[in-house]
């Protein structure tokens, strides 16, 4: 029997595009209240309007996940509007692939700030409420890169390995004692804006050669896997979901 998501509140980071946006629509269709978090407020307003046009409820909270105070404020805004948070989708992420010998340390640190610290800030902000209500579901978006390292992706992979490790630690510490479920979703190639974050021309050429003809997954495919995990009965924890395009090696 599927868990009813109607009336539950879901906070989605990186909700302005890609997997976050698609997941917000899927959750709204399932009857959840949405708290839409990202830096691009104009894009969030567009997502909110589309949800409202279909009869859903959504709150826009402009947030930079690398700033802890802003993340905590988004959680407080969600509680003020909807009373509680039952679902957190840690989706915000960046992918600045580059060869290590170029020493683009600023890009390395941006990935650490968004992909690791952002996940931890949001998780820390929602955990007290979930512990108190003895329920909740945290979905962390990792990547196939959290299992396989490719040339040019060392730091990105390091951040996604960290998300996997953090997710497993959360599961061990909270699922048996509080009922809070943790899901780590690890997609392969998806048609999103992530590729636009790459500035290293050598890596861009290598990716075009490797993935140029690949039929990638769509954001909606990842959103569907998230809904699958959320709708499992409480006795089931879909802890890891690994997704590849059928054509990807």
**Strand tally, please?**
7
Residue windows where pLDDT falls under 50 for at least 5 positions: none
The helix-strand sequence is EHEHEHEHEHEHHE
CATH architecture: 3-Layer(aba) Sandwich
- Overall, the morphology is globular
Helix proportion of residues, in percent? 40-55%
| Average pLDDT over all residues | 95
Describe the sheet with the most strands.
Answer: 7 strands, parallel
Distance between the termini: 35 Å
Strand fraction equals 5-15%
What is the radius of gyration computed over CA atoms, rounded to a whole number of angstroms? 17 Å
The class by helix and strand makeup works out as: alpha/beta
In the CATH scheme, the class would be Alpha Beta
Order of neighbouring strands in the sheet with most strands? 3-2-1-4-5-6-7
Count of helix runs: 7
Question: How many domain modules?
Answer: 1
Keywords:
249 residues, 47% helix, Rossmann fold, alpha/beta
Protein described:
The chain has 249 residues and is an alpha/beta fold. It has a single domain (9-243), classed as Rossmann fold, CATH 3.40.50.720. It has seven helices and seven strands; from the N terminus they run βαβαβαβαβαβααβ. The protein has helices at 18-29, 41-53, 68-82, 105-133, 154-178, 201-211, 219-230, and strands at 9-13, 33-38, 58-62, 87-90, 137-141, 181-187, 240-243. The chain has a seven-stranded parallel sheet, with helices on both faces. Strand 2, helix 2 and strand 3 form a beta-alpha-beta unit. Helix 1 crosses helix 7 and helix 4 (105-133) packs parallel to helix 5 (154-178). The protein is globular and about 50 Å long. The mean pLDDT is 95.
């Amino acid at each position: 029997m599927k868990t009813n998501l109607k009336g539950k509140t879901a906070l989605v980071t990186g909700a302005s595009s890609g997997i976050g946006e698609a997941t917000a629509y899927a959750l709204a269709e399932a009857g959840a209240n949405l708290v839409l978090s990202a830096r691009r407020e104009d894009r969030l307003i567009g997502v909110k309007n589309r949800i409202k046009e279909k009869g859903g409820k959504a709150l826009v909270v402009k947030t930079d996940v690398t700033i802890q105070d802003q993340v905590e404020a988004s959680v407080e805004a969600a509680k003020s509007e909807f009373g509680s948070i039952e679902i957190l989708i840690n989706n915000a992420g960046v992918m600045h692939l580059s060869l290590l010998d170029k020493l683009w340390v600023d890009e390395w640190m941006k990935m650490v700030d968004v992909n690791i610290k952002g996940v931890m800030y949001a998780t820390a902000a929602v955990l007290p409420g979930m512990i108190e209500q003895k329920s909740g579901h945290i979905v962390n978006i990792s990547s196939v890169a959290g299992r396989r390292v490719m040339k040019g992706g060392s730091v990105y992979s390091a951040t996604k390995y960290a998300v996997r490790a953090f997710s497993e630690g959360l599961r061990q510490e909270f699922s048996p004692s509080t009922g809070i479920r943790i899901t780590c979703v690890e997609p392969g190639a998806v048609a999103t804006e992530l590729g636009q974050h790459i500035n290293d021309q050598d890596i861009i050429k290598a990716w075009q050669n490797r993935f140029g003809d690949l039929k990638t997954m769509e954001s909606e495919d990842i959103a569907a896997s998230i809904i699958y995990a959320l709708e499992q009965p409480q006795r089931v924890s879909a802890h890891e979901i690994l997704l590849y395009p059928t054509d990807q090696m």
